[in-house]
Design a protein that fits this description.
- The structure is a single chain.
- With 148 residues, this protein is of the alpha+beta class.
- It has five helices and eight strands; from the N terminus they run ααββββββββααα.
- The protein has a four-stranded antiparallel β-sheet. A four-stranded antiparallel β-sheet has the order 2-7-4-5, with no helix packed on it.
- The radius of gyration is 15 Å and the shape is globular.
Length: 148
């Protein structure tokens, strides 16, 4: 998987210059996930963001009777757990692969190091994230996409 290409093409990093994309690629990890694998579970500590490079995942929510209900499907280009990089906390949903999935992972720890060590890159990324969130909130389906 070409991590730089995936990051560059993702709308989350629209407007981020190529040098910063390369920095992000260096702090990212490419992960292959088999089908039917829980990527993270509702209630787990939130410590990383994921970008789907290929494949599809189901977004599940526990009901009051502890049954999981599929509330959405995400695929190539979608972002999981964006706020994990800056907020932490616990996961609001469970995400499970429907098929083999390739993910780009950025941990909160590696992002914190970026913020401390490269203010220029951090500014560009945080500005782009803010714009991305504003665009999601402004769209009818946007708030739902932010949940993982």
């Amino acid at each position: 998987m070409n991590t730089v290409k995936v990051l560059k093409e993702n709308s989350l990093f629209k407007g981020v210059d190529e040098r910063v994309i390369n920095v992000l690629a260096n702090i990212s990890e490419a992960v292959s996930v088999p089908a039917e694998t829980v990527i993270f579970a509702e209630g787990m500590q939130s410590d990383a963001m994921f970008i789907i490079a290929s494949g599809k995942v189901d977004v599940l929510k526990d009901s009051q009777d502890k049954q999981e209900t599929v509330i959405g499907e995400l695929s190539r280009g979608d972002v999981l757990g964006l706020l994990s990089l800056v907020k932490g906390g616990s996961r609001a949903v469970t995400v499970k692969s429907k098929e083999p999935v390739e993910l780009i992972t950025i941990t909160q720890e590696s992002f914190d190091k970026l913020v401390k060590n490269n203010i220029h890159a951090a500014y560009q990324v945080l500005f782009s994230m803010t714009q991305y969130i504003a665009d999601l909130i402004g769209s009818p389906e946007g708030v739902k996409e932010m949940m993982p």
